[in-house]
Write a structure and sequence with these properties.
Length: 215
């Protein structure tokens, strides 16, 4: 029996030694905000596609229901972020997203040249630009959507102008979101961080060196 216990301890020790060290990347609130916002965005884009593309509209049918889901999901889209502001943890993440450091310019130059070794903090420059762009686009989509929904809300703004901005901005958002998803699927370790909250420390040191080893 003692020898068996010793072998078990040795086995557990080997497993621990072979398990990569992990570090907490995202807490519960940021992950919940990200996940909820993602689902609402998917509903908005999916229902928009069903409303504007004939083959999809014929396949899905129930236009009034699709319109209702689109309107409700659009109105709710900013809500996860607004509720997340109640959390100090989430506010700290937003502060990091809103601050551009000197090394972010270097990250962009290397990204455009498709070179590795890009310096980044907890968020790289691409993630910061994406978050800033979405943060600006969503209020515009909500505003123009309300103008389309309530035609007389601001009578000096033609409804046709609201439709024009809403439709073209929706296409731009769809393209950017697809790019965001594509980048996420190219990096399973980054997805793991958003799913579980933890990432491998060696990955973090390689991809986000100024976060793990700040100057």
């Amino acid at each position: 029996m003692p020898s068996m216990a010793g072998s078990d301890r040795a086995r557990r020790g080997n497993e621990t030694a072979s398990t990569p060290e992990r570090v907490l990347r995202f807490g519960r609130v940021p992950r919940l905000v990200h996940r909820t916002t993602g689902w609402l965005m998917a509903l908005c884009l999916g229902t928009a596609a069903c409303l504007y593309f004939g083959p999809l509209a014929e396949l899905v049918g129930r236009r009034l229901l699709v319109v209702s889901v689109h309107e409700i999901s659009g109105i709710l889209l900013p809500l996860p972020v607004l509720l997340g502001l109640l959390s100090p943890e989430f506010r700290a993440e937003l502060t990091r997203l809103n601050r551009f450091a000197k090394y972010d310019g270097e990250w962009l130059r290397l990204a455009l040249r498709r070179r590795p070794g890009r310096p980044a903090g907890k968020f790289n420059a691409g993630q910061k630009l994406y978050a800033s762009w979405i943060a600006g686009a969503v209020p515009v989509m909500l505003f123009t959507g309300l103008l389309m929904w309530f035609g007389g809300l601001l009578p000096w703004i033609p409804r046709s102008s609201a439709i024009f901005v809403h439709d073209w901005l929706a296409l731009a958002i769809a393209a950017v979101v697809v790019g965001h998803i594509r980048m996420a699927y190219r990096d399973p370790l980054a997805r793991q961080g958003m799913r579980t909250g933890y990432v491998r420390k060696d990955w973090a040191r390689e991809e986000h060196p100024h976060w793990i080893d700040p100057d």
